[in-house]
Write a structure and sequence with these properties.
Chain lengths: 117, 814
């Protein structure tokens, strides 16, 4: 349950932060959410990772559908990816990595030494 | 707190962010670039995107409405003249900001600043500086400042561009900025000047002076006249043949040393301009008078040929204010409609191809370049230190010396085998102070022939054939520009620069520029050919292209009851007059014994050819390949002795030489002891061509459009192939009216029927949006390739609820 809330909160707050702040605000959000919602490190990493992964997948997919994949096809070609779908996954994965590690960092700040994973 | 995991994950996070926030080599900053809320996804414009909005902007004087039709062409209605230009600037920036900035940065020799360290980029930047591009723009800017009437329009345009740039958030940046990771700087009138100077380079920046200098050390003056004739036998000039001209009002005097120091000088030159403009930057334009049209009203046509690029160099617009109602193609980067029409007239351009670029040998005292020998004394040079900024690296400094002639383009630090004692200065009319942009403010408002004459008078460079037609029934072409009055052969080769005797002595008075008004032929035409026959009293060297003009002249002569539809067919005509001359000669001389099956088939194919380079034609492929190998067979033997830059004669010159004299001495291969005949050489060329085509046949099946592979590159060329359009099925060649080569061709086709109301058609190979993520990026390309046109809608504001209007932007001041 905690992990689900954490994922959704990361996604939601990252979306809001993204409107006003640079792209790396996702790291700050994931970090803060991990402090706010205490979880074991692995859970926190997953929350940050999945939160951003889901957010960026949904956003990119939504844009791509509205755009009829006009641009994603060109950019996929530019990065030697075979399809817009792979480009969306690559997009989400890159954001997710940042979210995951930032959440891990936040989580390790709050967890007491005794608690192990 | 868990120290180790905290430290590790924090370091990883920061390192990741750092890595993903920066550009590595050609890889954009991935985090920034991929973020759906910031990066390229934001450029993926929704197909149902609504462009309508209300904008309150500082700098506007009154109210204005912009109605976008279904092709995203803006119809601007402004209460104030200045506001129309402000809005034009705003819209150019909104739809084409990256291209207009990149092109002006390139003009100024600043691409290393954007693209980073690379030998080629630095060389490009240095060459632009040494051509004096910025110097030329600064001179133009001073002139723009002197003329109050035009300055307020330039100012308004620049303010409009800046209003858009200032409103731009990171996510809204055009995608090229995101890929290359930089931001636009503010716009200025100087950038307008730079843009127009880049057009001067494109159109009046081609020369063969170094190549001719080298050739001339081997070939005699007489041979040079045959190999590079100033007037082709087959020429159909712009001004009808036999037209009488008044005696010249200026007769330049040949220096007394011309034979010893100039015509018999055998000094070669190894230096070379690397980023030369394309010789074929030409165009077609003509106007048919009412006496030859079905309606009785004149029909005006223009199709400028340029490098085809995405985003296109053109942006279509209508500008309406209380003083004008003009429609046509505009240059993002400059105010006004450049090629278009208003309620009374139509105007258009082809390149004059005149040589206005000469070189002088300059002797510096030493490597400091501070002083050079001129008119019997050491004269101080102006040293201009050019800082070339390089992205992520220390700047490169280049010192360019300015002499009485102009900038010293090649000196000991630039150019092979050049020393301070033997440097080369450039004299180019693009450097001379003038305000070219001002012409269009007048042209856009011209009502009749006399307004047209007033408008074009001060246009100096690049020299243009300006075509005109009016509803009152006049048709005209003026070859307009400021052209030096030369003595015979002046400026064909590099000239001595140790005194003033070889300098330009004056200019041909504007009224003596070649022009024609309402000729008895019932049409005026230009296609980059020499403007006049031998009766014109001035020596006017140039890089003229003859073949297209012959087709144009012949076709127009035969036409009666002309309609716009016939003109569309003519603009898309792929008939090659040159091939019709050459093929019978080739067929007569080719030896038909010992031919393979493949060779026989192809010879039959070309024998039954109608000389139309249609997209599916195989004969066109065979002809062009044959012609290319014939050029090699004829010229390579004499030309291989040159180690310095040289050029070979034009294709049509070669054909004229062979037609005139089937025993011409150039036919023989001088590297063999035998005496080769025309039959032998034509056959040899045929066999060579067949060998080449035999290798190609599996990929293209020798189909013409596949063979030439017409491609519209993105401005960043091969580095952004997904943004290009390749393999476009279209016929023609540079010697046909539909002059589409592999990268070059009609960049805007326009036909204006001067009836009331005006009936007009147009199309360009691109789209109104410069954004590769927009459905409006390249949506005209397929119709352009198919030879189709869009009706150009001269909208009245009372038609604002017409169903063609899709979006409205309402502008008001704050």
């Amino acid at each position: 349950m905690k992990i689900l809330v954490s994922i959704l909160l990361t996604a939601l707050l990252s979306f809001i932060a993204g409107i006003y702040f640079p792209w790396w605000s996702i790291a700050v959000v994931a970090f803060l959410v991990a402090i706010l919602i205490r979880q074991p490190i692995v859970h926190s990493f997953l929350s940050g990772f999945l939160g951003i992964f889901i957010l960026w997948t949904v956003l990119a997919l939504w844009i791509d559908v509205k755009n009829n994949s006009i641009l994603s096809q060109k950019i996929a070609q530019l990065f030697s990816l075979s399809s817009p779908f792979l480009l969306i996954i690559a997009t989400a994965f890159i954001g997710a990595l940042v979210g995951g590690f930032a959440a891990m960092s936040g989580s390790s700040l709050t967890i007491k030494s005794k608690q192990t994973v | 707190m868990r120290i180790l995991p905290f430290v590790t994950s924090t370091i990883i996070t920061i390192a990741l962010i750092f890595f993903l926030n920066n550009k590595w080599g050609s890889v954009p900053p991935l985090g920034k670039f991929l973020s759906p809320q910031h990066g390229f996804w934001q450029n993926a414009e929704a197909c149902d995107y609504d462009f309508s909005e209300n904008l309150a902007l500082r700098g506007l004087k009154g109210k204005a409405n912009v109605y976008f039709d279904q092709r995203l062409v803006p119809h601007v209605f402004a209460e104030q003249d200045v506001d129309a230009y402000f809005i034009q600037g705003y819209l150019h920036a909104k739809f084409r900001l990256w291209q207009m900035e990149f092109q002006t940065m390139a003009a100024a020799g600043r691409i290393s600043e954007i693209l980073g360290k690379d030998e080629r980029f630095i060389h490009f930047d240095r060459e632009q500086r040494r051509l004096g591009m910025t110097y030329a723009a600064e001179n133009a800017l001073k002139e723009m400042g002197k003329d109050k009437a035009s300055k307020q329009f330039f100012d308004a345009y620049s303010s409009g561009v800046n209003a858009y740039i200032s409103s731009l958030s990171e996510k809204e940046l055009p995608i090229e900025y995101k890929l290359l990771d930089y931001r636009p700087e503010l716009w200025s009138n100087k950038k307008i000047a730079l843009f127009l100077k880049q057009m001067s380079k494109t159109l009046a920046g081609f020369d063969r002076d170094f190549e001719f200098t080298n050739l001339h050390t081997v070939f005699t003056e007489q041979e040079m006249r045959i190999l590079f004739p100033s007037i082709d036998d087959s020429l159909k000039p712009i001004i009808p043949k036999g037209t009488a001209f008044a005696p010249p009002s200026i007769v330049p005097v040949k220096p007394s040393s011309v034979d010893s120091l100039y015509l018999n000088n055998d000094t070669t030159v190894k230096a070379k301009e690397i980023f030369k403009p394309d010789r074929k930057n030409g165009s077609n334009s003509w106007a048919v008078s009412g006496q030859k049209t079905k309606s009785g009203a004149p029909i005006f046509c223009n199709d400028p040929h340029l490098d085809l690029t995405l985003p296109s160099i053109w942006y279509e617009m209508q500008l309406t204010t209380p003083t004008m109602n003009v429609y046509g193609a505009t240059f993002p980067g400059s105010p006004s409609v450049i090629i278009g029409f208003n309620d009374s007239i139509a105007f258009g351009f082809t390149n004059a191809q005149r040589d206005v670029k000469d070189y002088y040998r300059v002797r510096f005292k030493d490597d400091s370049k501070k002083e050079y020998w001129f008119d019997s004394s050491w004269k101080a040079a102006d040293l201009r230190v050019e800082e070339i900024k390089i992205k992520g690296e220390a700047s490169y400094f280049d010192t360019v010396a300015y002499t009485v002639f102009g900038p010293v383009m090649f000196d000991e630090s630039f150019g092979t085998d050049i020393s301070a004692k033997n440097s080369i200065a450039l004299r180019w009319s693009a450097h001379d102070p003038s305000n070219e942009g001002a012409m269009w403010f007048k042209l856009n408002r011209a009502q009749n022939y006399s307004d047209f004459l007033t408008a074009i008078k001060s246009f100096n460079c690049p020299g243009q054939n300006i075509t005109f037609a009016s509803k009152s029934g006049d048709i005209s072409i003026w070859q307009q520009g400021k052209f030096p009055a030369r003595w015979g052969r002046q400026g064909l080769y590099i000239m001595p620069g140790e005194d003033s005797s070889y300098m330009w002595q004056g200019y041909i008075p504007q009224s003596e520029n070649p022009h024609v008004l309402n000729p008895v032929e019932g049409f005026v035409q230009s296609a980059n050919q020499r403007p006049v026959d031998s009766l014109y009293p001035y020596f006017i060297p140039g890089n003229y292209l003859t073949p297209r003009g012959i087709t144009l002249f012949n076709k127009l002569s035969q036409m009666q009851q002309v309609t716009p539809r016939m003109m569309m067919i003519l603009q898309n005509d792929c008939y090659s007059s040159l091939a019709s001359e050459a093929v019978p000669m080739l067929l007569k001389n080719v030896d038909r014994t010992n031919l393979s099956q493949f060779e026989k088939i192809n010879l039959n194919e070309i024998a039954k050819w109608n000389y139309i380079a249609a997209p599916d034609s195989k004969a066109a492929t065979i002809y062009q390949t044959w012609m290319d190998s014939l050029k090699a067979v004829i010229w390579n033997d004499e030309w291989k002795q040159f180690k310095e830059p040289v050029v070979t004669p034009d294709e049509n010159t070669m054909i004229e030489i062979l037609l005139r004299d089937s025993a011409s001495k150039y036919i023989d291969d001088v590297s063999t002891p035998y005496k080769e005949t025309l039959e032998l050489q034509v056959t040899k060329a045929f066999k060579l061509a067949m060998k080449e085509l035999n290798m190609e046949k599996n990929t293209t099946d020798l189909v013409w459009w596949k063979h030439k592979n017409p491609t519209i590159y993105h401005l960043l060329k091969s580095s952004l192939m997904p943004f290009a359009r390749t393999g476009i099925k279209v016929g023609g060649w540079n010697n046909t009216l539909n002059a589409v080569t592999s990268t070059h061709g009609p960049s805007w086709r326009m036909i204006v029927h001067l009836t009331s109301p005006t009936e007009a058609y147009g199309i360009y190979p691109g789209g109104q949006s410069g954004n590769p993520g927009s459905k409006y990026y390249d949506n005209f390309v397929s119709n352009w390739a198919a030879g189709k046109y869009y009706p150009l809608w001269i909208m009245k504001e009372s038609e604002k609820s017409d169903e063609r209007i899709k979006f409205i932007i309402k502008f008001s001041n704050i």
